[in-house]
């Protein structure tokens, strides 16, 4: 941390800052300038926060320097991690050497719809199935998901198709039942800062897919991952799904730069969700190509056998020709950036 | 809802839209133009959503017209509401004829600190005490609040000072214990879209202070209030606390316009939190003046007997001369806009 | 400036930074920490910028500390300034002791409309007349203003009503002709970073009203004012007119906090434009109250004798009962914050 | 356009809207609903704007449906355009079948530096040279470019290297001299809404590179292009260069979705500037891969022979190994999306 003193700060003001820092065992290095004096602090950041130095007389600003996250940081864990999703032979990797394609319906509506969507997904190259049983909806009058019945459908479709399942959990009280049925627990964008839920999935013993809050900075997102990691679970995959900006032509603005930014600072894998970012199916294929090319570790997209009857986000779900085009893209493009499409057979742990 | 057809839509495309709308019992009015055709829908909006009209051939856009919220809307409830906080004779109103001043420490740290802050708050004209026992923090390494012990301190300070208490609940599992101790349950900015928590506080039988999500639109915020109302609780007070923008000189940007915007569309009371909006104590007094003048129904600010030792948000807490200045403002300015400072004695139900 | 070294920076890396700083006559103070080393720089900031220290081996970050603006900063000019608009006895002040009300039509459409609007404005307490002869419009097909004919109408209405005029200039080539007719030159939000125009108005010998760019930070805005000041013109009044955010219920989000933020860092006067911020006339009166209460030095609003025929921004123009309400507000509220309504008679230079 | 009436609108209110629309030669189609009535307008949009329908009694909202731009729209010009830059045999295309690589220094600093950068650029596959002689800078104390001397250096380097040049013009008064020296005129992000400049470049007889305003919507950007087109110049290439959001880890947020969004609505070519979007050279290569993959028509990047001495934006300029990596990317990746790298030899008009 760096303490910037005001131009009119006195020697006593400076001495008071130094004294306070030393009281908690820190060291303070004073750099006196013509106009301003700067004090560099070395020691335990957390103890400095409690000092509230910003409030002392003569202090103009206090700036943090080090990363505030530790377990998910690449500083102390330089190799990028691989997270395995699914049991035994069916486990599929998400990590730096592969490209993992996850697809499925936004919401589980029925056994038939889910099964059909899973077959579509698998046919297009997907090796993990997404599908929501618990849906967080802006309106209390919108379809909220099938709940437990939805989880059972997913488990059943997994048994038939062999695809491990990724599904969202929206309430800490539901974590045990979701963890019992799912292979990977998704924390959605609206819950990225629901710290009780983060802690609960951190203790559930299953890998977690953590979506970025729609207005979270990358740093806040990594802090949310730190909450999960701190409970002992490092099997966290990040998912960029668009941020909120002033631009109305897409539902959110896909922050494609977040992929290399995260990879430079954290060892966790990161995938991209073009369906929710754009909210328009005509953008899903070009954004998927961009995601592969920028170096994402995977992709998660909505597919639906009959988008026109979908209970949730129909306009962004792929079907027919769009899906065939995407299937070609995920089969051909990962090799261009030195990756292969992830499958259960990829396992070489 | 309005369906906008593409320029090249055929008569069959138009007929298909009309047929689908009529299938679910709606009416469709077709307006044919030289370039485009527009179809106005009348009937049950929810059933139209399930039709996914956007995906039909020839459809260029689908636009919603009516408010998506009902219970909190002023359309069907034109008189603005008053919410009473506190038991029996101690109850304090928040509503259109009064101006309610809420103050207290950001976090409950000890009995002594809470009691001192309460006395400061009461001395400055506050009639409700704020204070956090459960703190949602971006970092898992930051102080997370005293929990149950904090609630007991608050209840004790209420007994001594007579001030009803407002405190945050961050997890649906904690709602019963918080409701048992507090007079008003606060849902914080990070939990505005935690729908399970909204439903839980909707069933808790206590008034709710619902902070705006830091990147929520006014419409989404009112939808969150609708979640609470739908569980039978209309005693909801909204709190504008700043939104996230690109401007770095304040922690958030106080959206002062949200006060008259909300008052025009919802009957719920709305108050302003200048402390968390600005994150700087030098802005709290001017922003409080602006909040009163714009027509807010109340104000919630951080005070602390010793900000330099505060475990949370010390730089924004008022003390001494700032607080004396604010006390003058809340005593003199509400009359300028035709309101009186709310007290328990205001009761004339 | 502070240079933050990476954790793996070597002694040589540090020495290289120090050497470069000393080469240009600066001083470098090294603070070595357990994890990181920080180097504080003292000297001429501009020369440091050219060093591109960020690119040296081992450098993790470079942070600026001092204000980048000088002439408009309050650091070297602690008393807040007053700017006088108008010739001789007609001059009206904008500054810290008064509250100045500016009103008029968004665009000059005809002599009759401008005169009627001026009479409305004066009747409501305005002492300066606004009105656009050159209009920057998003669409090339929209009304672009009457140009020179509009300036002549304004000058004529000034002669009749006695109100000095404020009008926008959108092109550096038009500065001489606009300066010849107007009492104050307005630089609009779209031109805040049109540096050639800023320099031209800086040399025109008339006071300038500088609107904030709709996505400019306060610092960038003050830098734009510095461009004008640098050409010898310190008679600059800043105007907050709303910033672009994700909230759709208002055209822009009025950043009311910008008023005290600017007043804390710059000596220039600052006024508020609630009409363009909100884009809705129902918000103009409450936002005007907020502007006075927060401590703004003035207000600029749109009025129009027949808003339903306005060629520009009709929906936000005040008329009749709204304007009478605003007239009451500007007459009564400034006294609440210790100011009096500015008039030409205020002159006590 | 669609006029939405308020729930309490009377038959007279509705009739008044219809009458006004018919007065200007439009047609109004009334759709009466249980709660609301909607009126669809058909005819000349511009004439409707002047009606200010929003202000009539009983009108709740007015919504536009058609595109506001015409000349740059794909509606009336379905084939995507190709723009040629450079004279005679040296002309290089930017369009839907090729991928055009533009590189060069942010600012022209000297003949030697510009020549070296041009040789680097050409060696990496670039066929057009960028370089700024007039620099718009936030600070009046920053390097503002060499002006005319810079243009002469660029022309000289073109003569030696054969690369046509792209250079920025920041003031309408400079358009003739810049057009005389340059092959393509760049309008920068700060000037996207400088309408006088847009009109001036529209009349200059040279192709234009129009950067997106840092907070412009796609629609506003296309309206800016319409200003140029309206003056008779359809040789406009759009350049996405990042938008302003709350995320601090990159200077701006590259809106990669804007590429397919623009291509769906406009026939103009669109390229990407990853250097200015990110402001960090470590992101330039991954973002360039994403730009090619998403379907951009070209790329513009900063290169500099000695970034550590650059007078402008050194931290984002490529050199050595980064540039070699980018050279590989631009040579190999366009084929993956069915394009070839554009060269003068590509000419097959």
CATH architecture of the largest domain in chain A: Alpha-Beta Barrel
Assembly classification: homotetramer
CATH class of the largest domain in chain A: Alpha Beta
Overall number of domains of chain A: 2
* Relevant CATH superfamily of the largest domain in chain A: Aldolase class I
Report on the architecture of this protein:
4 copies of one chain form a homotetramer. Chain A is an alpha/beta fold. Chain A has 2 domains: 2-63, Alpha-Beta Plaits, CATH 3.30.70; 83-346, Aldolase class I (TIM Barrel, Alpha-Beta Barrel). Chain A has 11 helices and 15 strands. In chain A, strands 7, 8, 9, 10, 11, 12, 13, 14 and 15 form a 9-stranded parallel beta sheet that branches. In chain A, strands 2-3-1-4 form a 4-stranded antiparallel beta sheet, covered by helices on one side. The first copy, chain A, has a two-stranded antiparallel ribbon with strand order 5-6. In chain A, helix 5 links the parallel strand 9 (165-168) and strand 10. The longest helix of chain A has 17 residues, at 320-336. Chain A starts with a strand and ends in an 8-residue tail after the last strand. The model of chain A has no long low-confidence stretch (mean pLDDT 90).
């Amino acid at each position: 941390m760096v303490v910037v003193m005001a131009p009119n700060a006195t020697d006593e003001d400076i001495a008071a800052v130094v004294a306070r820092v030393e009281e908690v065992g820190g060291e303070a290095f004073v750099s006196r300038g013509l106009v301003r004096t700067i004090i560099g602090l070395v020691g335990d950041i957390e103890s400095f926060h409690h000092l509230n130095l910003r409030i002392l007389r003569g202090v103009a600003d206090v700036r943090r320097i080090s990363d505030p996250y530790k377990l998910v940081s690449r500083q102390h864990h330089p190799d990028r991690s691989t997270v395995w999703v699914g049991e035994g032979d069916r486990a599929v990797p998400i990590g730096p050497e592969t490209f993992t394609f996850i697809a499925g319906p936004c919401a589980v509506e029925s056994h038939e719809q889910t099964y059909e969507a899973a077959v579509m997904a698998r046919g297009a190259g997907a090796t993990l199935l997404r599908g929501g049983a618990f849906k967080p909806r802006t309106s209390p009058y919108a379809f909220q998901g099938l709940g437990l019945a939805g989880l059972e459908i997913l488990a059943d479709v997994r048994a038939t198709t062999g695809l491990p399942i990724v599904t969202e959990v929206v309430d800490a009280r539901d974590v045990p039942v979701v963890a019992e049925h799912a292979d990977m627990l998704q924390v959605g964008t609206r819950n990225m800062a629901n710290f009780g839920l983060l802690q609960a999935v951190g203790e559930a013993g299953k890998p977690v897919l953590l979506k970025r809050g729609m207005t979270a900075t990358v740093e806040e997102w990594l802090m949310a991952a730190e909450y999960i990691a701190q409970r002992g679970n490092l099997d966290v995959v990040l998912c960029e799904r668009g941020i909120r900006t002033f631009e109305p032509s897409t539902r959110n603005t896909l922050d494609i730069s977040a992929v290399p930014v995260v990879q430079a600072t954290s060892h966790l894998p990161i995938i991209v969700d073009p369906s929710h970012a754009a909210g328009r199916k005509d953008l899903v294929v070009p954004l998927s190509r961009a995601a592969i090319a920028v170096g994402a570790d995977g992709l998660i997209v909505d597919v639906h056998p009959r988008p026109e009857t979908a209970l949730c986000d129909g306009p962004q779900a792929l079907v027919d020709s769009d899906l065939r085009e995407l299937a070609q893209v995920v089969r051909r493009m990962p090799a261009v950036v030195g990756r292969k499409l992830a499958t259960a057979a990829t396992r070489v742990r």
